[in-house]
Amino acid sequence: MLLVYFGSQSVWAMALLGLILLLGVIIAIQAHRSRARGGNEELPGMVGEVTQASDERGRARALVRGEIWQVHADAPLQPGQTVRVRAERGLMLEVEPVPERDVSLGEPS
To answer: PANTHER family, from UniProt (predicted)?
Structure first.
């Protein structure tokens, strides 16, 4: 009945349009269900490099994700040392030193 009224090309065009709309709805639903991650939520677990040595209170500065952050660590930090972010507390990051791999054993650094 539709073929008589619309013609075969119109039916295919409407079917293709319907599939495209269905695909768009499915993508929109999946995007809505996924948890948004961005900003400072993704900082824990990231690795950075110390740019300024730590002071007597354990505070230093480090380059993480292309930004200079004020960091705090229990161990003293030296410039060039690699650190991993444990937590974010406002504008300060809690970090821990990443142990350097032993190059003499052939492990990648």
So the answer is: INNER MEMBRANE PROTEIN YBBJ, NODULATION COMPETITIVENESS PROTEIN NFED
Q: Tens digit of pLDDT for each residue in 47-88?
A: 999 999 988 888 999 999 899 999 999 989 999 999 999 999
β-sheet bridge partners, residue 93: 71, 88
pTM of full prediction above 0.70 = no
The answer to whether residues 66 and 100 touch, using CB atoms and an 8 Å cutoff, is no
Across 24-46, b (16+ Cβ under 10 Å) vs e yields eeeeeeeeeeeeeeeeeeebeee
Q: How does strand 47-52 pair with strand 67-72? A: unpaired
